[in-house]
Structure formats: structure tokens, C-alpha cells
Amino acid sequence: MRLPTVTPQTRYNLLDKLRIGPWLILAILATFVVALLYPHQLGVLLWSLSKLCWGAYLGYWIDRSIFPYARPDSFNPDKHTNEVTSWEALMLRRSIIIAAAILALGLEV
């Protein structure tokens, strides 16, 4: 059995995936602090996190269903003359829709 070789590209991909790692560690530590100091608040924390996740999920799918033809990940700059502005506008549109869905669920609207 041959072991996979680690190339600079694979190393970059792994580091790229772990770039949010410090925030995840901080969130886990904060959850443990809440669990130690205020264990009765864990349900509230779980409820808030679930609303945040549902808002992000619903916002993403709302964007995909409203704009099925204009997805940022399938944008082909060769077909457009002003590729940077068009791609940035698609990403900005998606982030605004997702942020609106998160805020709506977070504010219990």
C-alpha cells in the first residue's frame, strides 16, 4: 500500500480549510465557559445557533431559487465583458440575501 505524498498544493489546501480554525476554537471555548458558569443558558445558546444556521441555509437556497441562472460559482467571465464587476455583484447579492435571512430569523421576525 502506497501512502499519499504531501505536495505544496495539498498542504495549501489543508491550511486553506483550517484558516477559520482559531474562530472555531474560540467558539468551543466560549461554549465551555457558558456551560461551566451558566449551564442553564446552554439551551438558549443552542436555540440561537440553530436559528443562525437555518438563516444561512435558507438564505442560500432563497438566492439559488430566485436567481437560478446567475450563480457566483458557475459564473463564466469569458462570456461577459466586465467580469470583475459582474462576479462581485453576484457575490454581493448572495451575501445580502443570506444576511437578510439570518437577521430575520435572529430578530424573530
UniProtKB/TrEMBL annotation:
It comes from the Bacteria. The keyword Membrane applies. The chain crosses the membrane at residues 20-38. Keywords: Membrane, Transmembrane, Transmembrane helix. Pfam families: Holin_2-3. This is 2/3 transmembrane domain holin. It comes from Vreelandella maris.
